[in-house]
Amino acid sequence: MKDTFTTPWKRIAQTWKAFGPGARPSKGNIKTFEKWILKYTRGKKSPRVLVMGATPEIRDMLARHRHVQVTILDVNLEMMRAMTELMRESSEREVWVRADWLTAPLEHGYFDVVIGDYIKGNLPYAKQPALYHNIAHWLKPNGVYMERIYSWFPELRIHDIGPVIARFSKRKPALRQATNLWHYVMFLTQPGNKDPKTNTAFAVLDRYASVPNMKTYRNMLYDLMPPGKSWAYHKPWKEDQKPVTASFKILEEAPDDTLLKDRTRLFVFRPKK
Amino acid sequence: MPKKRKNYHAEPWKAFAARWRELYTAPGRPSKPDIAVYRRYIQSACARLKRKPRTLVLGATPELRDLLAQLKHDVTLADINMEMILAMSELINPKNPPETLVRADWSQTPLRTGYFDVVVGDLVIPNVTPDRRRAFTKEMHRLLKPGGAFVTRVFITPPLKEPRENRDEVIERYAHIPPGETRSHELFADLFMNIALDRRRMIFDIKKLRDVINEFRIKDGVYRHPNKNITQYLNKMWRMWQPMDKQWSAQTEANYMRMLSPYFFVQEKAVAGVCYYERMNRTFPLWYLEKR
């Protein structure tokens, strides 16, 4: 069976650069993560941080703290290399592990911090408990896990697609506008009872192809986005958090400040005893 | 800003990776007889396992990775150079199942304690800088399960008091033997063993070899010797090892044992190889070490 969760990243890696804050963490998100990392590793001479995935913004922030030992874990070497190209700092000191998050043979009780940006939705629901179980084991007993999570939080709103299309149709199509439009079509206007799929968003764009500029946006996004990619994003937070809270308790949370802020929060978790 | 010190043990591999396919031969890489010994040792180490064996490969040697794929092992690869892993991955059988790849210093990996049944690496110990030897051995010991095996080919330098040959004596021995694909590398290893040791630091420095063959250099990267075979070997040697600044910390057998014996005992040793001179094959034996 074709894996619709991880394989499409190989293509996304090539186009990641076109995205702004939203799919990528904002400066504000990175500041929040940085503040938390410094807080929870205070007094440690050489804390070990594991990055789930290869998010360049997180790695740049960590690289600036020379005392931190960074390990990155991703199943796609293409993604790791492509994301490294987007880094401003050197990745030379990082340890890289190309392995499946569910089977990576990492040491138990080794890391002070594990951090991930939107990693949860990249695994089907059935596999999420095993992921968080692994993360909890890789952490030291007093270690913390941080993640920016997309979910159906109680206060979310579903944006009306009509006004969104009308707004973007008045803007000159540019790559960043196209990816911003994508955030709306893909994540902010779709109803919450189904996992979002790139193909569903393409169908919406096709439907509005006669609206000025929409055909251009659509063509740009067809070039950028992989067909058939899906995310596990259809449950309300009360349900959605279960795979995480089976292994962790929530220590802190903070709001997101990107386009996806209605459906995104940043969390710090600690493994349950 | 202080200039970063180059690691002459690890960094030159980045450039060598690209030349491996064309120029790197036995005894630098494992020959078929070497691989047969590796196979025997690895199979013996995993004979009683009821699950898929887990093996850590140090470095990215394609021959070992193909062997482990044939033996259906679950393979994790560790190397400090991603360039080396990528270049070597071009040379393995494309049908091999995916491996876990780790870019890390062998002496400090984030891998799980006691996870591996076998650690295998071809000529890896001389690539460990002297200050990391203890940490390296300790790390291999940590990663292996109780009774696990560390299988490796080593490069043994003769005891220090044993007389060495000079450049001309070594070259003379290679001038009149039948040429072969591996001869350039055999000559390189022989010259290296006799000439390249910096006794003060106990480091083999390829620069010493570069200096002694300099007499035959007619222009940058081009060598000429009265014997046409030697001319060919020297030019191939330069093409492989340029700019000739790599270092290795090969040791005497007694020193290897001193380094390894707190953590491992020798289960078996074997000499294979395809070198013309048997003495050179004995310089590259294979060891099956068992975790204490």
Describe the structure.
The complex is a heterodimer of chains A (273) and B (292). Helix content of chain A is 37%, strand content 18%. Chain A is of the alpha/beta class and 273 residues long. In chain A, helix 4 (77-85) links the parallel strand 2 (69-74) and strand 3. In chain A, helix 2 (27-40) packs across helix 3. The longest helix of chain A is centred in the N-terminal third of the chain and has 14 residues, at 27-40. The mean pLDDT of chain A is 90. Helix content of chain B is 38%, strand content 20%. Chain B has a 7-stranded mixed beta sheet. Chain B has a 3-stranded antiparallel beta sheet with strand order 6-7-10. A two-stranded antiparallel ribbon of chain B has the order 8-9. Chain B is built from 11 helices and 12 strands. The longest helix of chain B is centred in the N-terminal third of the chain and has 14 residues, at 32-45. In chain B, strand 4, helix 5 (133-143) and strand 5 form a beta-alpha-beta unit. The chains are: A alpha/beta (273), B alpha/beta (292).
Please describe the structure with a list of short key phrases separated by commas or semicolons.
heterodimer; A: 273 residues; alpha/beta; globular; B: 292 residues; 7-stranded mixed β-sheet
